[in-house]
Amino acid sequence: MLANDSAATDPLEAAEASSITNDVSTPPVSRKDSTEDVDEGDNNADVDAAAASALEAEEREELLQFINELRDKIESKRQLRLQNSTFKLPGEEYFAKLDSNLKKNTAFVKKLKLFTATQLDVLMRELSALNLSKYISEICAALAEAKLKMTDVPAVVTLASRLHCTYADFDVQFLEAWQKALNIKATEKIGNPSKLRVDLRLFAELVSSGVIQMKPGLAQLGVVLVHLIAQDKDDHSNFSIILSFCRHCGEEYAGLVPQKMQQLATKYGVEVPKSDFLTADKQLNLRTMLKDYFKALCKHVLAEQGELMNMTKNIRRTMECKGEISTEKREKCELMQAGFDKLLASAQSLSELLGEPLPELAKESECCNPGTVIDNMLDSASFGVLDPWGDEETRSFYTDLPDLRQFLPNFSAPKVDLETLEEPSELTEEAIEANLDAEMDLDDPPSTTSDSALENPSEEQLTTSVTPAEDVKPQKMGNALMELGRQQQSQLNQNPTQTQNQMRQQFDVFLVNLFNCVNKELIDSAAIEFLLNFNTKHQRKKLTRTIFSVQRTRLDILPYLSRFVAIVHMCNTDVAADLAELLRKEFKWHIHKKNQLNIESKLKIVRFIGELVKFGLFKKFDALGCLKMLLRDFQHHQIEMACAFVEVSGVYLYNCRDARLLMNVFLDQMLRLKTATAMDSRHASQIESVYYLVKPPESSKREPAVRPPMHEYIRHLIFEELCKQNVERCIKMLRRIDWQDPETNCYAIKCLSKAYLLRFPLVRCLADLVSGLSSYQPRAVTIVIDNVFEDIRAGLEIHSPRMAQRRIAMAKYLGEMYNYKLVESTHILNTLYSIISLGVSMDQNVISPLDPPDSLFRLKLACMLLDTCGPYFTSQATRKKLDYFLVFFQHYYWFKKSHPVFSKAENTSDLFPILVDHTYRDCLASVRPKLKLYKSLDQAKAAIDQLQEKLYPQLKAANNAQDPSLATISELSELDEGVTDEDSGSSNDQRERQVAGQEQEQSNDWTENETEPPLPQPPPPEKSKEDLEFEHLYDKMTTDSYQERLKEPIKATAKDIPVPMMARLQKKSYEQITGAQASGTGNNNTSQISKAVANQDATPGSPGPDLPDGNVKSGGGAGGSVAAAGTAAVPFVLMVRGNKGGKQQFKSFVAPSDSHLAINLKRQEQKIREEKEKVKRLTLNITERIEEEDYQESLLPPQQRNFTQSYYQKPNKHKFKHQKGAPDADLIFH
C-alpha cells in the first residue's frame, strides 16, 4: 500500500494531518453546543453525542481519504506496468529523424547526474528530440549514481519508463547499473545511508512499475534487504533504511497496512484495496523477515533503556555526593538520551506498520523523563517550579525597569540586557577555587587606590550625541523627554561655563536627595532625572563613588540604589561595572585583613553585593566566590557576613538553574560547620534561620481530599464565591442543587453549618444565605440551626484553646441568625445562660475543668453574642428578659475579676486583662447605653437576691443557705406581654427577607419564575372509577350550591351584640359602689363596660343591629371586658327577653376570672389581637418590600429601568392634552 506512494505526499502523513486537523476543530463545536443548551444534564448528553458524531465523521473521512489515495496509486501502478509491458519500440526511421549531436547528448547525460524533479519537463522535451541510442549505458549509470531525494523518485520513474519504451536494451543495462550501485557486502557498513534509503525505494518503484524485469529485480531487492538485516543485528544502524522501505513500499511487497487504518476499516466494515503485484506467499516471506527484525529491534531498545537507566543512577549519585556534574558526563548522557529517543520513536513507527506491539518499557520515574537527564536532575532537586522571586511584587521590583533609551536625545549605544552578563561556562566549585586563589593577593583597600581615578577633573567632558534627536521615534512619553533634552543642550551651548557651574551645584543637591528616595517611584524618577540632566562621564564616576560610600547603617536603601544603578546601566554600563568592581575589591580587602572591626561596613558590602546579584549587575560566579571565601574561615564576622549574604540573595541563587546545585552545596557546608564547630548560640541561630529561609523544611504533604463535582461546587459557592454583593446569586445557585438527593442534602447542610471556615466578615452573609434558603428548604435550615447549637454546646463542654476562633465564629453566626429571624429570643437567652453557667463553679476553692479561673474566654463569647444580636432585643418582653440576664452576666464578670488569680497584689502579671475589661464595658454600652454597672461582686449578688425575691418569692426561704448566683429564671410567655420580639417594628434591614416568588430577578439570572417545592411530595394514590364518579358528582353539587347561595342576600353574622345606651348609663346600686371601692379597681363600672363595647364595635366584622330570635343571649365579648392582670372577677351584661311584649332587658353580673366564660372571652380577645397583629405585619412587609424593589430599581442603569416594573405597577400612560391648550393643573398647583 505504501509502496505505491510515488507522489510527493505520503498518505499516512496526510491521514495523520487530517486527524490532527479534525481533532483540533472538534472541541469548539462541543463548546458551542454546551453554551447553547440550558439544561445542564441535557447539555452534557448533547456534548457527548456531538463529540462522538464528530469523531466518527472524522474517522470515516480519514479512512475514506486513505482508501481513495491507495486505490488511485494501485491503479496508476497497474496502468504503468501494463504500459511498460505492452509497448512497441520505434523503428529506425524514428531515430533517423532525431538529433545525434555529441554535444547535446553529452549535456543531456550530465543533466541526468544532477537530476531533480523540477527538470522533468525539460528533460522529457530533450529526450523527444535527441537520439540517445549510443548513450544508454551512460544514462543508466547516471540515473543509478545520481544523488536524489525522496521527492525526485516519481519523476525518475516517469523518465525511466519513457526511456524503457523508446530504447530496446535500456532495461538490461539499467538492471546492470543498479546491481553495481546496490552491491552491498554483509561485512561492510553502509557508507552513505541517506543515498541507499532513496536508491532502495527507487529500485523497488522501478521493479513494481515494470521498468526493470520482475524476476531479476525481485532477486536483487531480496539480496539487498537480506544483507541490510544481516549486518544490523547489534546496533541497528540501518534501521532508518528498512523503516523507509516499509513506509513507502511495504504495501506492495509485504502487504503492510498501518494498524490505525486497519482498525478503522474493521470498525466501519470497509475493505482496504490490495495490490496484485505480488502473491500472498511472496509477501508473507518478506513480512516474516521484517517481524524477526522488529523483535531484534525491541531487544535493542530494552538494552539501550537499561544503559540509560544505569547512567541516570550514576549521575544522581554523583549529584548527591558532589552537587555537580562534569561536562563530559553531561554531554555523554544527553547524547545517549537523544539516541534512545530517536530509536524509540522509530520503533513505534515500525510497530504501527507491522501491527506488532512494543514491549513494555520501564516507567518514566525509573528511567528517563522527557528532556535531558540533566534537566530532570535539576527539576528533581528544585522541589517544584523554580521561582527566584516568590511573589509578583518582588518580581516586578527587580525585573520591570523603565527603559528610556529611545527617549534620550543623546543616546545611541546598543541595548544592554541585564541577564546577559558573561558567566563562566560552568559554575563549579573547582572553578571558583581557582579564581579565588588567583585573586587573594589584594592587600590595599579599593577606597585608597580608586579615589584619584574616580574624581579626576580632567575627564570632565560631555558625551556628544552621535545620533540626532530627530532619528528617535516619537512616542507619548518620549516627546516630552526629548524636548527637555533639546532645551538643556541648547542652554549648554549658549553659556557653557555658567551652565556647568549650575549643573555642578544641582548635581550635588541631587546626590544629597538621592538617599531620600525610599520607594520605587522616587528612585525611578531620580534615575530619569540623572539620565536627562547629569549624564556625563565625570558625574557618573562621582555618582559611583557616592553610591559606594552610602552610610553603613542605611541598609534599607540598598535595594533602591541597586535599582537606580540597574536603570542607569541600561544606558551606560560603566556605573554598574565600576560599582561592582569596587564592592568586590572592598569585600576581598576586608577578608584579607581578618580583623574584627567595622562589622556594619562588612554587612553593608555583602548586602549590596546580594542586591546587585538579583538585578543581574554582579556575576553569580563572583557572588558564589565571595560566599566560598567566607566559608574558608567560617568564624566571627565571616559568619554574620555569610548569613547576611544568604539572607539577601540566597533564595534567588538557589532558585536559579545555573547556580542552584552549587548554592545547595554551600548551604549544606554551612550547616555542617555549625554542627562541627563550637560557636555562639547567636551565630548558630542565624545559620539555621538563613538555611531554612532558603530551604524550608519539607512538611508532610497532605493528600487533597477527592470530592465529587457537586460537593466541590457547593464548597465553591459557600466558601469562595459568597460575599455581600452576590448573596442573592448564591441563594439561587443553591436552590438549583438536588436537595432530594440525601448525599447532596447532607453535604450542603454540613457546609452551611461551618461558619468558622469563612472569613469573619462573611459570617453575616452566610446567615443571610441561610435565611434566604429558609423559605424553600425549611427542613434543611432547621438542621443547620440545630448543628449550630450543638457546636456551641460542644465548645462549652470541651475547654480547648485551639477551638477559640471556631467558638467565636459560631457565636457570631448564631447572633446573625437571630437578626435574620431564624431563631427565637428564647434560644439566644438560653445560650447566653449556658455560656455563663454550664460547667461553672461558683466556689473559688473548686476549680472547674470546663471553666478554669484564669480562662476569660466565656466572657468574650458572651460579649460577642450580645454585640451581634443584643441591640435587636427591641420588644418589651425581650428587653425585660435581657435585663434579667445582664444582672447574672455582671455577677459572672465580677466573680471572674475578683478571683484570687487576678486579685493577688504580689503577682502583678496575673492582674485582670485590660482588653477583656474594655470588651465587657463596650458590650454593655452597646446593648444598654444607660445601664448602671455594678462596681463589685457584692453589688451583683445583692441584685441577684432582689431579682429572685421579685420573681420567686416562694423560693426565698429555701435558697437562703445556698448560693443564689446562677439560678435559672423562668421564661415568661411572650404572648402574655402583648407584643413579641419577632413582631416588633424594627426597621433593621438585616432582619427583613423578601417573600418567596416576589424577589426581584437580576439581569444575570439564568431562569425566571422558578419554583420548587419545599419538600418532596409523595405520588398521589391511584383513584378508582367509583372515586372519580363521586368526585364529579360532588363538584357538581358544590357548584350548584354555590350558585344558589350567590342569589341569596348577604347578611353580616352577628358575633357580638352592642349594649344599649340605657344599659350603659343605668345607675349602680349601693352594693356595686361599695364592692368597687373594696376591690380597689374601677373595672366593674359601666363606663369601662361601655368602653369595651365601643372598642368591640370598632373591630372589623362587628355585629349588626338585627338579632336572631332567642330567649336568652349572653353579651360575651360585646358586653364584657377582660380585667387587668391580678383581678378575681370579670363583669358581664346579660340580655334577656321580657315576658311582656318581648322587650329586651339587661342585667349585670360578675363572673370569676377562672370560670369558663371568662377564659373563653380571654381566648377570643387574644385571637382578635393576633389577627390584628398579623394583618399589621403583612401590611408592613408589603410596604417595605415595595420600598426595597424601588431601591433595587434605582440601582439599575437608566436604560433598563423601564423594563423592570413589578407586577403591581401600572404602565405609564401619556397624559391627555386638550386640543385648545387647556391649562395643566399639576403644573399650576405643584
TrEMBL record:
Any single GO CC term annotated in Swiss-Prot or TrEMBL for this entry:
synapse
Where in the cell does this protein reside? Cytoplasm
Which residues are in coiled coils?
A: 1158-1188
Which residues fall in a compositionally biased region of kind Polar residues? 18-28, 453-467, 997-1006, 1074-1090
Q: Where is the composition biased (Basic residues)?
A: 1211-1220
MIF4G domain residues: 102-298, 508-697, 712-930
Extract one GO molecular function annotation from the record: RNA binding
Q: Please give the name of this protein.
A: MIF4G domain-containing protein
Species assigned in the record: Drosophila erecta
> Which lineage ranks, top first, belong to the organism behind this chain?
Eukaryota, Metazoa, Ecdysozoa, Arthropoda, Hexapoda
